[in-house]
Every structure is written in C-alpha cells, then in structure tokens.
Design the sequence.
C-alpha cells in the first residue's frame, strides 16, 4: 500500500498510470526501509499518520509538485523511462507531468514534500529570485505550460557537510505542518520559501534542469553535466560511458558542441571551481581539500591548482578569503 494511496484519484488526462492527489496544499511524507518493510509517515493538516507496509514501486504521477530529498542511504528512481540513483543530500523536484517511482536500499530514509499548484501560485510572487528553483516553479505552474515534462535534480555542491541550516528548516517545516496552532500556516509558507531559497544556494547545492521534451542529444549533455557536477569534477570518461551506456567519444562530441568544452576540460573546470569554493568558504586544511576532491596527494593538488589559477592554494585563500556566508534563510 502506498503512503499516498488513501488520497488517490483517477486521472482526468487518461494517463495509463495512477495519478495521486494529497488533497492538501502542503504535505510531507517519509519513507524508511528496514529489511523487507517500509515505514511510511504522512504529515498534513496538523495530523501525523504512520504505518508499515510493502515498498510501493508502481509508476505514478502526482497532481502536486513533488520535492524528494534523500536523508539517509541511497535509492534508485525511475523518472519516465530513465533510471537514476540518489544518495543522501541529493534529490529532485518534479512537475506533475513526470511519471516516476523509487526503490529504497536497506536503511534508506527519504522525504517527500508535496506542494500544490494553488499554494505555489500564492507563494511564488513573494520571491523575486531568478534562480533555477523559482524559475522552474514559476514556469511550470502556469496553465499554458502544464503539458511540459520537466524536473530538477540537485546534488551537494561541495564534498563537505555544510547543510546544517537546511536540515533545521526541514525540521521546522515538519513541526509546523504537524500542528494546528494559530498562525501555523504563515510559518509554513515562510519555511517553504526559505527551503526553496536554500536549494538555490550554489555554495550548498548544484541544480540541473532537465526538460524531457528536448532532443536526445540535449538530454545526454544534461546527464553528462549532472554526472560531472555530482562527482565534483573527479570522474573519468570511462565512468560516464558506463553510467549512460553511450560511447564516450560520442558524449564528448555532444558536450563540446553545446558547451565548447570536452569532458576532460569540463571536469577540470568543475574541479577547480569546487577547490576555490572550499578554499574560500571553509577552514579545511589544504590536504583535506585535496583528499575530498580526489587528488592523490597535496603536492599534486598544489601544482594542479596553481597551473589553472596562477596562485598556490594558500595564496588564493589569502587573496579571496571572506567570512563564511551568513545563513540568511
């Protein structure tokens, strides 16, 4: 039985897949696998319901926009006809046209936040952000665009746990959705906006936008970029070829056509960008940064970084170092 099945509706669009509605502007769902069973928790309208059942893996659609965040472990996810793997700190934001399902590995815990189009229509004007999250939602919530199939994937921007405040916002949102106290709805709205703003923080998350109605070539370039960003630039052509099941030279040519960079060059630029962010925004030692970015030694990282920036890592840090960004959300 699905954690959402008790609010399931038939789809008026004649989709061959079940289409699920939460019947609430804002709902939170948790799934946690323990052995052969999954513990489901639903929080909405001041109520919390928990039960244990089989893992629900049927392909389906939602009437709402669905934000999925892996909190622990990893899961595999089928989006339309494509298979993906997400690990802790990663996730996706789906528009209602995306057919999907997920399978949790043992010990995995995942959170789903369902945002109704009505709620988003009310909240989005409160933000003037032109970042990927708000742009995606503003575009897809419009009735003229509700036939388009698109989604966002987000990964940790750095190999470094700097998302404590993000999880504090998640915990606060859960508490407010679970309460019926006076004014709870206003706190919920504010926390949703803070959560979306946090996802747009490039020092914490890297976001990739995918429109499934684009050409196969554009889609593959999108996947290559996502893989490189998700591995912080430390990924080989052979690994990308194995992940996407396409010849590496073909993928290399597509990426070069659309970005002007080969896979190797693009990965190098991402790796340097991550090194710069770690030097500026953390107090990690140079050896620790080298380790987190997959360099075989501090010396190799030193020469690699200096060749690309004309500054040694310590010189770069002294020149550009600033106070860690304030947690503004």
Sequence:
């Amino acid at each position: 039985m699905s954690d959402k099945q008790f609010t399931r509706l038939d789809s008026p669009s004649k989709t061959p897949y079940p289409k699920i509605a939460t019947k609430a502007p804002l709902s939170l769902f948790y799934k946690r696998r323990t052995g052969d069973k999954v513990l489901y928790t639903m929080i909405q309208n001041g109520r919390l319901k928990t039960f244990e059942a089989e893992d629900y893996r049927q392909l389906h659609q939602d009437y709402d926009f669905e934000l999925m965040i892996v909190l622990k472990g990893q899961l595999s996810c089928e989006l339309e006809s494509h298979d993906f793997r997400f690990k802790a700190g990663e996730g996706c934001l789906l528009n209602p046209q995306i057919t999907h399902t997920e399978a949790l590995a043992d010990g995995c815990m995942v959170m789903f936040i369902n945002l109704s189009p009505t709620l988003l229509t009310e909240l989005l004007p409160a933000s003037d952000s032109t970042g990927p999250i708000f742009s995606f939602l503003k575009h897809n919530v419009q009735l003229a665009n509700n036939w388009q199939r698109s989604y966002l994937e987000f990964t940790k921007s750095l190999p470094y746990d700097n998302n404590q405040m993000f999880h504090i916002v998640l915990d606060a949102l859960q508490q407010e959705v679970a309460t019926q106290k006076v004014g709870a709805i206003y706190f919920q709205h504010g926390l949703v906006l803070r959560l979306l703003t946090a996802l747009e923080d490039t020092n914490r998350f890297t976001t990739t936008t995918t429109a499934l109605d684009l050409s196969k070539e554009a889609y593959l370039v999108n996947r290559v970029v996502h893989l490189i960003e998700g591995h912080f630039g430390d990924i080989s052509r052979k690994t990308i070829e194995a992940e996407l099941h396409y010849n590496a030279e073909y993928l290399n040519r597509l990426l070069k056509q659309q970005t002007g960079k080969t896979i190797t060059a693009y990965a190098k630029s991402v790796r340097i960008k991550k090194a710069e962010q770690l030097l500026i925004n953390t107090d990690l030692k140079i050896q620790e940064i080298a380790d987190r970015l997959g360099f075989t030694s501090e010396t190799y990282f030193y020469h690699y970084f200096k060749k690309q920036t004309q500054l040694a890592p310590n010189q770069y840090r002294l020149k550009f170092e600033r106070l860690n960004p304030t947690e503004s959300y």
The mean pLDDT is 89. The chain has eleven helices and 14 strands. Residues 263-281 form the longest helix (19 residues). The two ends are 36 Å apart (CA to CA).
